[in-house]
Q: What sequence folds into this?
């Protein structure tokens, strides 16, 4: 509660802030990677099973290149453990699980629909067996590393590499989306339920657009490592096509607003049937595929920002406007032909690293359908008062992306960077 995101409430309530929060929030220790969420207190467990009405699962390891054992435990087994715990709740009305739209990018290019019975769930029987195989493989590799007496750093590197290998083997670009996809499957296969399950799939989440104030962010999200690399003069070239390369981004407060409205909607659906898609389970894509700007525009805004607001401090090279290449092969050829002098090699390592990480996101031409989310927005406008409709708005069509990047997102990102300068240097 000491985070900056609460500063508006803290200012509003003053000395009464702590009591205001304690009246609404009861924290307790738990771990989604464990059976029963790691809860040992039987009285607490009984109280939770009796009093919980809604479960919202946001727990996740969000690093693209996470340790495989950690990602498997949190992103795949976590949803299963949450659902198992949830099914014991006597008065449960719904469960909401936060996933990611990018679980779909294993498939071919095109429009990815919001439908429960999509390709991922059609394949879930096969992949549930895969989960057990992967758990055994992880334990086997950990045992081998223990016998070899490797350092913790070496163990971590080996587990990261294993995750990337397994993700690519099954067609996903990284450990994160692979494990999140399997996490959805663990939920999708448990179909005998008397409560709705809502899966929200945000795209790449960026800083807040409006609430509680513009530009709040914590951590390096979506495009942020690339944006900062531009500011440091470490991105002379990158992948992307001027007309066809998009990366779907969405401000964090719009994601939260959509989730709040989805919760209210599905509770009211059970009572009043105000909004029904024919299934008690539903997926919402929360993104801006049809309302965002080309990737190159977003990165050029970053270049313009840092031209006006240059970064200070050591390790900064002169900022350059990145040259973009429409294919990975043309990008690699450019590097091979132009960056053979040792002094330039370190500079281009950033570009190579980020191009490899973002290749599938940037070059795979994918659009995320938001039909259900659009219907949810219409329902909200019809059933909320005018003031609530403004506060809970999550329509990306209203965003002026240049103004948002230049005046909200990048300034907010830089504020976070300054506050965590040591971590920023080590991560990038």
A:
């Amino acid at each position: 509660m000491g985070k900056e995101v609460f500063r508006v409430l803290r200012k509003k309530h003053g000395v009464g802030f702590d009591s205001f929060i304690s009246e609404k929030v009861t924290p307790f220790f738990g771990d989604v990677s464990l059976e029963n969420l790691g809860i040992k207190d039987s009285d607490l467990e009984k109280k939770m099973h009796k009093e919980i009405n809604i479960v919202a699962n946001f727990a996740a390891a969000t690093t693209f290149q996470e340790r495989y054992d950690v990602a498997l435990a949190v992103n795949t087994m976590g949803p299963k453990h949450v659902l198992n715990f949830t099914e014991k709740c006597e008065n449960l009305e719904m469960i909401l699980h936060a996933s990611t739209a990018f679980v779909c990018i294993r498939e071919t290019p095109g429009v990815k629909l919001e439908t429960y019975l999509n390709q991922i769930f059609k394949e879930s029987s096969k992949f549930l067996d895969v989960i057990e195989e992967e758990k055994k493989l992880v334990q086997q590799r950990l045992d081998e590393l223990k016998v070899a007496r490797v350092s913790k750093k070496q163990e971590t590197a080996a587990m990261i590499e294993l995750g990337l290998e397994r993700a690519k083997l099954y067609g996903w670009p990284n450990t994160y989306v692979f494990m999140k996809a399997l996490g959805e499957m663990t939920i999708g296969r448990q179909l005998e339920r008397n409560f709705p399950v809502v899966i929200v799939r945000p795209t790449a989440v960026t800083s807040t657009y409006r609430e509680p104030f513009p530009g709040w962010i914590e951590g390096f999200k979506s495009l942020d490592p690339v944006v900062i690399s531009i500011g440091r003069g470490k991105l002379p070239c990158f992948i992307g096509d001027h007309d066809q390369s998009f990366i779907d981004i969405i401000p964090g407060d719009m994601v939260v607003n959509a989730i709040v409205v989805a919760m209210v909607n599905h509770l009211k659906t059970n009572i009043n049937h105000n909004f029904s898609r024919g299934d008690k389970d539903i997926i919402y894509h929360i993104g801006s595929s049809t309302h965002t700007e080309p990737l190159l525009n977003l990165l050029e805004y970053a270049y313009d920002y840092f031209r006006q607001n240059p970064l200070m401090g050591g390790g900064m090279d002169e900022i350059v406007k990145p040259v973009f290449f429409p294919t990975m092969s043309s990008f690699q050829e450019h590097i091979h032909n132009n960056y053979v002098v040792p002094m330039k090699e370190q500079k281009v390592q950033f570009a190579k690293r980020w191009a490899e990480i973002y290749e599938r996101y940037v070059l795979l031409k994918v659009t995320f359908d938001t039909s259900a989310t659009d219907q949810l927005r219409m329902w909200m406008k019809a059933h909320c008062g005018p003031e609530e409709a403004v506060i809970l708005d999550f329509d990306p069509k209203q965003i002026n992306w240049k103004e948002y990047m230049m005046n909200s997102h990048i300034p907010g990102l830089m504020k976070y960077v300054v506050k965590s300068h040591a971590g920023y240097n080590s991560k990038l």
